[in-house]
Amino acid sequence: MVYIHEQRNQSAEAPRICVLGAGHGGMAMAGHLGMAGYKVNLYNRSEERLEPVRLMGGIELSGVIEGFGPVELATTDLAAALREAEILMVVVPANGHAFIAEQVAPYLRDGQYILLNPGRTGGALEFRAILKRVGCQAQVVLGEAQTLLYASRNINPAQVRIFGIKNNIPVAALPGNRTAELVAKLRTIFPQFVPGDNVLKTSLNNIGAIFHPALTVLNAARIESTRGEFQFYMEGVTPSVARVLEALDAERVAVAAALGIRAMSAREWLYMAYDAPGKTLFEAMRNNPGYKGINAPSMVNHRYLWEDVSMSLVPIAALGKHLKVATPTIDNIIHLASLMNQTDYWAEGRTIERMGLAGLTVAEIRRLALEGDL
């Protein structure tokens, strides 16, 4: 399998890439790009993970990719990180997208490409709204990936293990009429990126919104009593739990339909992604070999709630309310997650206002996704 264009790109024409975020995904991407010969800048707002990268001169990769990826600049200085970069790969939890948008706005320049890896639900919309609010005039191409390219973990300072790389990831630009341009630019680096219809579809095909939060909430007692020592998708899913997931999924699909979008069901996604058949979602999840051996999170205060509820379920529910589509199951999971973590995810999450959609009709939302401006 070809994971990245293998030729070393040291020519003057090869784009310099800035990876924003030194978490599991950001470190994997920076090392992978460096190993392929691209000039890579790595930005992180704290020093802790950058100093080992500077000392080693890059990142050591293991797993499905073995080797060393040089990193030319590892810095907390955002201006320096962006100065010569043509492509900005934002690889932070979706809760950090707003911070990144505010911080990069003064340094953006015409002709740059920005990709959220991934956008979760409404990521590109929120990012665009912030750039507009702070008065950024740079003509950039903004987009979001439907999911993260890597399954990876930082195993030691400046060392990353990559467990897998996805084969195809839909990418959409905002405005959608620049998706072809964005994907053409990205595919010179990552052939896995394929054109998505628009950011509404990449956002509403966010299947993690269905699986992660509800499974965590419904297994909360077991997670806390065992510290996650059980198989999350196998032992944590019973027929009754799966029926809750199906109800959540039906509400997500209904919200998408109200926008004129045919969203893929979770059961269809399992078959497409893993060849996992089933007449019910429970059967499909049980028939998915890729879920075997994956343990639950060790605590309830986990990104499956603090990221996936606020940045995935809240915007779906907010869109539902705006479009007069009932989302009672989603609303209840948000409420229970807020109680469990003593956090108001409704207040912290992506609202209609934060996505820049307040007061817009369905036709105007669709036009915004296609053209970028109304």
Question: Can you give me a brief rundown of this structure?
Answer:
By secondary structure, the chain is α/β, with parallel strands linked by helices. It contains 17 helices and 12 strands.
Per CATH, the superfamily of the largest domain is NAD(P)-binding Rossmann-like Domain
**What topology, given as strand order, has the largest sheet?**
5-2-1-6-7-8-11-12
Percent of residues in helical segments? 40-55%
Net shape: globular
Helix-strand topology string: EHEHEEEHEHEHEEEEHEHHHHHHHHHHH
Largest sheet: 8 strands, mixed
CATH architecture of the largest domain: 3-Layer(aba) Sandwich
What distance separates the N and C termini?
A: 43 Å
Alpha plus pi helix count: 17
CATH class of the largest domain: Alpha Beta
State the domain count: 2
- How many strands? 12
Q: Give me the CATH fold name of the largest domain.
A: Rossmann fold
Description of the structure:
Strand 11 (169-174), helix 6 and strand 12 form a beta-alpha-beta unit. The radius of gyration is 20 Å and the shape is globular. Helix 8 (208-218) crosses helix 14 (308-322). It contains 17 helices and 12 strands. The protein has 2 domains: 17-199, Rossmann fold, CATH 3.40.50.720; 208-343, Orthogonal Bundle (N-(1-d-carboxylethyl)-l-norvaline Dehydrogenase, domain 2). 46% of the residues are buried. An 8-stranded mixed sheet has the order 5-2-1-6-7-8-11-12, sandwiched between helices. The longest helix has 20 residues, at 239-258. 42% of the residues lie in helices and 15% in strands. With 374 residues, it is an alpha/beta fold. It has helices spanning 24-35, 50-56, 78-82, 97-104, 123-133, 179-187, 199-204, 208-218, 220-226, 239-258, 266-274, 281-286, 303-306, 308-322, 328-341, 345-348, 362-371, and strands at residues 17-20, 40-43, 58-63, 67-70, 73-75, 87-90, 113-116, 141-145, 150-156, 159-165, 169-174, 193-195.
